[in-house]
Amino acid sequence: MRRSDIRLLALSVTALAVTFAPGPSSAFAQAWVNPKGELSLALRSDFQTSQGVYHEKLYTGVPVEAFNDALSVEYIPLDHLSLGATLNGNGIRYSGPANIPGSGVQLAHGPQDDGSFHWNVTDLEIDARYQAFDGAVTLTPVAHFRTPITGYEEKGYAAAGSHLMEGGAGLYLGRYGLGLEDLVLQASYVFTYVAKYSGGGAATEQYRVNRSDADLVLSYVFSNKLIVGAGAAFRYTHDGFDLANYRALEASDPMMNDPLFKFHDPVLKVVYLAPTAVVSYQLSPTWSLAGRFAAVVWGQSTTNPLSFGITLGWANNLVD
């Protein structure tokens, strides 16, 4: 595969990374590893807007807007080995009502649910990939670690993230020339082990929100400058509080004393499916630009964001 194609594919996967908080961005998670000595930087910014939350169905009237930003660096110290780091931050606002109109049921349940944007530096991610096999398909195991680095807010619609440490491992698969010479398929599966959340005491410590993420991207290389792709991201959280049980919790605790009423956000049993689309363009031998769109079209215990983003990438080989 041409080096320019690898760089553009890396940028396209960076741009496709779903950033629906809280979750990993996995900035350089792709099947192919650049040549030894390659240094890559990427600056990603996404705007996302949502109007509702999936319980048993989609309930609207809870608008949230967010800017999700990430600065990533990747270096290839050895053949087939990639090491990367990503610094994440966001600005988020809940602009809906404090209570359900005509009732005393509280909607704004976090200190940042006040109608204003709140800006935070949130988490640091460390990633490692090793391109173990490059034949008819390319197989690349991946490991990642994520930790909060500031005391950002984890409760409410305007929560900046989960504030939980996590680590995971998985496998990336790539095939260049899928029927057509310049058609590229990439697929991945990653399992993530997540620390327990103690903010609500035993009520939240009963859950450990380990999750599985599966992604599929199909791209076409129109030239050594232009790649267009589409894909889908699926997340399944194996344990957690399901918002479908919220009404039952209200019925059993009408005074709303259970800590889950206030502290449920970091322990939600999130499930979603999000189609994605991306275009990447090589501006120069070292600079690239990518734009992307993603939308959660189905889910449970999650919002329904539409996301629009742009990624600026730079790459250069330090040993050439």
Task: Describe the structure in your own words.
The chain is mainly β and 320 residues long. It has one domain: Beta Barrel (Porin). The protein contains 4 helices and 14 strands. The chain has helices at 3-16, 202-205, 246-252, 260-263, and strands at 38-54, 58-78, 81-94, 118-130, 133-134, 138-148, 166-176, 183-194, 211-221, 226-237, 271-282, 287-295, 298-300, 306-317. Strands 1-2-3-4-6-7-8-9-10-11-12-14 form a 12-stranded antiparallel β-barrel. The two termini are 18 Å apart. Mean pLDDT is 89; it is low at 21-28.
Number of strands: 14
What sort of overall outline do the alpha carbons produce when their principal axes are compared? elongated
Low-confidence stretches: 21-28
Strand content: over 45%
In angstroms, what separates the terminal alpha carbons?
A: 18 Å
Strand order of the largest sheet: 1-2-3-4-6-7-8-9-10-11-12-14
CATH superfamily: monomeric porin ompg
Over all CA atoms, what is the radius of gyration? 20 Å
| Topology pattern, helix = H, strand = E | HEEEEEEEEHEEHHEEEE
CATH fold label: Porin
Provide the domain count: 1
Q: What does the main sheet amount to? A: 12 strands, antiparallel, barrel
- Secondary-structure-based class equals mainly beta
Task: Tell me roughly what share of residues is in helical segments.
Answer: under 10%
CATH architecture: Beta Barrel
Give a concise summary.
The protein is mainly beta and 320 residues long. It contains four helices and 14 strands.
